[in-house]
Each structure stands twice: as C-alpha cells, then as structure tokens.
Automatic annotation (TrEMBL):
GO terms for biological process: regulation of DNA-templated transcription. It comes from the Bacteria. Residues 114-124 have a biased composition (Basic and acidic residues). This is CRP-like cAMP-binding protein. Residues 114-136 are annotated as: Disordered. Residues 32-102 form the HTH crp-type domain. One of its GO terms (molecular function) is DNA binding. It comes from Tunturiibacter gelidiferens.
C-alpha cells in the first residue's frame, strides 16, 4: 500500500465512507421510528438524493429482508408499505417504485397532507394522534 498511492487513497476513501455510513445507520437505529427507517432504507436503495438522475426502482427485495434491515417485523413493514402507497409515496406492484416525495418524509419528518386531517408525523399511531389532539 505504501507503493500504490492511488490504491491507498481509494481504499482510505472507501473506509471513511463506510465508517460514516455505519455511524449514520447507528444514529438512525437509535433515534428514528421504524417507519422513518424504512423510508430511509428505501431511499438509500434507490439512491434518491444523490447527484445525477436516480433510478426510482428498488431491486427486488422481500418484506422480511426489509424488516431485518430496519429492525422490525415483516407485518410492520407491510403496514408501512401500504401506508406509503396510500399516501402516494411509492408504487408497489411486485417491484417498488419511489416518488421523490418520500425524501420529504425523511428530511422533514412529515407525511403529505391528507384531506380533512391534521398532518401526521412519522411514527404517529392513531393512539398517539388522539392524545396529541386531546392535549390541545
């Protein structure tokens, strides 16, 4: 590695990028809801938010694999995927196609507005939404 400076530089860049990704994954696991973690992993898989034109199609992947990646159950992944589909954030017919609005879920921690409803926040459940409304 001492003699191959170009390779050494490339290898160090790779290690640094991998270390940063590992730290980001740990922070994501500790501080974000499973719904937000799912949105983030879908974006990472489609490379949305990266420079250049992203490919909005996710490679074929099972809900079980997604659940393992974000640390939740397959049934929760199914629930969140259906919720994302109903909100128009994804199309889900065998392969997952993302819409750029999913990026707002991760960046701004908000779901798109729904008719005649308050803006739900990521991680809200009907039970927590009811409590928040009762406290107002």
């Amino acid at each position: 590695m001492h003699k191959e400076h170009a390779f050494s530089d490339l290898f160090l860049k790779f290690l640094l990028a991998r270390s940063m990704r590992t730290q980001a994954d740990l922070i994501d696991q500790l501080f974000n809801s499973s719904e937000k973690r799912l949105a983030r992993i879908l974006l990472l898989m489609a490379e949305l938010g990266m420079l250049g034109e992203p490919e909005p199609l996710i490679p074929p992947i099972t809900q079980e694999t997604l659940a393992e990646m974000i640390g939740t159950t397959r049934s929760r992944v199914s629930f969140f995927m259906n919720r994302f589909r109903k909100l128009g954030l994804i199309e889900y017919n065998g392969r997952i196609r993302l819409h750029k609005t999913l990026l707002n879920v991760v960046l701004h921690d908000e779901l798109p507005e729904q008719d005649n409803a308050e803006k739900p926040r990521i991680g809200d459940t009907p039970r927590t939404q009811g409590r928040a409304g009762a406290l107002k």
